[in-house]
Amino acid sequence: MAPTATKKQIQLSERSVLVWRLVQTAVWLVGAAILTCLLIFPSVGIVLFWDILIPLAPALLVIAPGLWRNVCPLATTNLMPRRLGFSKRKKLTAKQSGIFGLVAVAALYIIVPLRHAVFNTNGPATAMLIIAMAVIGVSLGFFYEWKSAWCSGLCPIHPVEKLYGGNVFLTLPNAQCDKCMHCVAPCPDSTANFGPESTKKTTWNRISALLITGGLPGFIWGWFHVPDAASISSIGSFFAVYQMPMLGLLATLAIYSLIIAIIQTKYERKLTGLFAAAAVSCYYWYRVPALFGFGAWGRDGLLIDLSKTLSSVAITGITVTLTIFFFYRLFLAEKNRKSWLIRPVKLKLNS
C-alpha cells in the first residue's frame, strides 16, 4: 500500500521559528568552519567531515531524517534566493522531478568512489566539492520553488534519505517551509513512511528507485573493499576505484530485480526495508572498525586508534548490535505511519 500524506499540519510560533533559525545559523556556521578547515587545515577538515560528520549521517537518516532536513547547511543555502524574494518559483513537472531524482542517484554513485581517489585525502578537493554543490543548490533556488529542485531533487543525499527514512523514530515541525507551497508531490517531508517506491509517476522515478534500493547494499560492500589511493598515476588507476563498488552494485541489483519480479506488489515495501537495512548495516559493519583502528586498510578512515586498548570483540559487539537494530527498525518493525516532518499549513492553490 502506497504511503499517503499525513493530515496533521502545524504552524510554528514566532518564538519557535526564531529558535529554529538560530539552530540553522549555528549549523551553517559549523559547516562553514569545516569548509574553512578543509581549505586551510586539510588534515583537521578531513577528520571533521569524513570521519565524524559523515559516519553519523546514516544513523540520523534512519532515526530522524527530518532533523537533518531542517538544519542541513546546503538546504539553508539553497533556500536563500527564495527567502530573499529572488526566486522565479517555477514548479517542476513530473518528468523533470523524475530526471532530477535519477541524476541524484547517478551523482551519488559517481562521487562516492572518488573519495578513495581524491576526497578522503585531499581537503581542498573536498571543499571544492561542497562549494560546487552549494553553487548548484543556490542556482536552482533562483528558478524553482522551495525544496523541489535541490533538497527533493538533485541532492545526492536525498536518494539515501528516501531509502533509510521509511520508518522514522522522530517527527519534527518543518522549520524550512513557512507554508506548504505544493512544490513537489508527493512531498517527501510530509508523506508517511516515504521511500523510493513512493513516487513512480515516470520511468525516471522507477529507474532511480530500482538503482538506489537494489544497488546500494552491494555498492557499499564494494566500496569498503577499495583502499584510499596515495596517488593517482594513470587513468586506469583512477577508474579502478569504481570496479568493486560497481560489481557489488550489479550483484545486489540483480538479486533485487529477481525478487521484485516474482513477489506480490504488497510485499515491495517490505523488500525495500530489507535492502535498506542491509545497506546501512553493511556501512557500519565496516565503518565502525575502521574508525577505531580495526579497519582492513590500516589508517584509512581512522578517527582514533583504539586497537591496543579495546578488544576486537567489543567492536564486533557494537557492529552486531547496530545490525540487529537496523534490521529490526527497517525490516521487522511495523510501519508507524510517521512522516519526516509535520506539514506546515497549506497555501491555497488559488491564492
Description:
The longest helix is centred in the N-terminal third of the chain and has 27 residues, at 14-40. This protein has one domain (12-344). The chain has 351 residues and is mainly alpha-helical. It is globular, with a radius of gyration of 20 Å. The protein has helices at 14-40, 42-63, 65-71, 73-78, 80-83, 94-111, 114-119, 123-141, 150-154, 158-164, 203-223, 235-239, 243-262, 268-291, 312-332, and strands spanning 9-10, 172-173, 341-344.
Q: Could you name the key traits of this structure?
A:
disordered N terminus, 15 helices, 351 residues, mainly alpha, single chain, 60% helix, three-stranded parallel beta sheet, 3 strands
Structural class: mainly alpha
Give the rounded overall mean pLDDT.
91
Quaternary class: single chain
Helix content: 55-70%
Through-space gap between termini? 33 Å
Order of helices and strands: EHHHHHHHHHHEHHHHHE
Strands ordered across the widest β-sheet? 1-3-2
Low-confidence stretches: 1-5
Short overview:
This protein is globular. The longest helix is centred in the N-terminal third of the chain and has 27 residues. It is built from 15 helices and three strands.
Secondary structure topology:
Blueprint: E1 9-10, H1 14-40, H2 42-63, H3 65-71, H4 73-78, H5 80-83, H6 94-111, H7 114-119, H8 123-141, H9 150-154, H10 158-164, E2 172-173, H11 203-223, H12 235-239, H13 243-262, H14 268-291, H15 312-332, E3 341-344
Parallel strand pairs: 1-3, 2-3
Helix pairs in contact: 1-2, 1-8, 2-3, 2-14, 6-11, 11-13, 11-14, 14-15
